[in-house]
Amino acid sequence: TKSDGKGAFRFYEHSLAERLQARLNMERALHQALEQNQFVLHYQPRVDSMTGELRSLEALVRWNHPDLGLVPPLSFIPLAEETGMILRLGDLVLEQACAQIARWKQLHLPVVPVSINVSPYQFNHGDIRRTFAACLKRHDLEATLVEIEITESSMMGEQAEVSAELTALRAMGIKLLVDDFGTGFSSLSQLQRLDMDGLKVDRAFTSELVKKPEGEVFFRAIMSMAHALGMHVVAEGVETEEQLHALRALACDEIQGYFISRPVPSAEAELLLQKRFLL
Ligand code: C2E
Ligand code: CA
Ligand code: CA
Ligand code: CA
């Protein structure tokens, strides 16, 4: 019928226009969010798999949207990367993390390094080295109090430049971790050349570990090669005690995941600094 036809036409017309409009709105909102700093960090602990000792807190950004509430990073990080806004967002994240560590230090809390996610775009277009150095200096922090997490894909970028950048960061005393390991295409020889400190194995592999027999084979191979190359291994997305036990049996060094704690706001993270995790 006529109305069906019109409805169908309008559906397509709207879906294109709406998507463009939605994207524009989102871009505008993100610009405003950057100006007004509507971003907050939540922190998720990473602990020693044997002793439960707290090793680090990973900073995970959320957009505290005036109408929508806390928006998860995967719904705005990709747009921030596409538009280059990730540079300013990255600066805000770093600044907030360093300010937080400095506050915890002032309160004489037993601080641990805060681990910061850095996008490939920041590596290729930003000045990571100087940004980090300046922020640490501004807050009078030792470089060992921050760590950088980068995905395998960002290390594959402009090889020589990325490699020089990583070397400089490491020389400053900043630890470097490969994020989502196993989802990209880096070879362990590349990792050794780049002298990474640790591997964070993607949570897909943690979940397969106790589900599929091949899962254990994969982990065992990673473990032995990483250790031989002087890197420690972190399992991401540990949700069950069964997974913890399997990881311990494989001598996986550290774990992170809901089994230990979800990412929490800074006030709760402050309590985690003083907590003993009993595994
Ligand atoms: P990621 O770096 O791999 O961070 C881990 C993600 O897994 C977090 O999601 C965390 O909440 C979630 N997670 C932790 N433990 C578990 C678990 O046991 N089970 C399950 N199912 N999930 C778990 P979140 O906070 O939504 O962050 C998503 C991604 O957004 C991060 O993945 C990271 O790639 C990116 N991201 C977050 N903050 C930043 C940032 O400040 N800068 C950049 N460039 N990216 C960020
Ligand atoms: Ca990460
Ligand atoms: Ca990860
Ligand atoms: Ca090493």
Protein described:
- The chain is of the alpha/beta class and 279 residues long.
- Helix content is 51%, strand content 20%.
- The protein has helices at residues 2-35, 77-83, 86-106, 120-125, 128-138, 152-155, 159-172, 188-194, 203-209, 213-228, 241-249, 266-272; strands at 39-48, 54-65, 69-71, 114-117, 146-151, 175-181, 198-201, 232-235, 254-256, 264-265.
- An eight-stranded mixed beta barrel has the order 1-2-4-5-6-7-8-9, surrounded by five helices.
- α3 (86-106) runs parallel beside α5 (128-138).
- The model has no long low-confidence stretch (mean pLDDT 91).
- It binds ligand C2E and calcium ion (3 copies).
- The site of ligand C2E has 19 residues, from β2 and β6.
- This is EAL domain-containing protein.
- Residues 23-277 form the EAL domain.
Spatial strand sequence of the major β-sheet: 1-2-4-5-6-7-8-9
Q: How far is the first residue's CA from the last residue's CA?
A: 66 Å
Total strands: the figure is: 10
Order of helices and strands: HEEEHHEHHEHHEHEHHEHEEH
Q: Roughly how much helix do the residues carry, as a percent range?
A: 40-55%
Supply the number of helical segments. Answer: 12
Q: Tell me, briefly, the overall form.
A: globular
Overall mean pLDDT stands at 91
Instruction: Characterize the biggest β-sheet.
Output: 8 strands, mixed, barrel
Task: Point out poorly predicted stretches.
Answer: none
The ligands bound in this entry are: ligand C2E, calcium ion
**What is the structural class?**
alpha/beta
- The whole-angstrom Rg is 21 Å
Regarding quaternary structure, what we see is single chain
Proportion of beta-strand residues: 15-25%
Protein name: EAL domain-containing protein
Domain EAL: 23-277
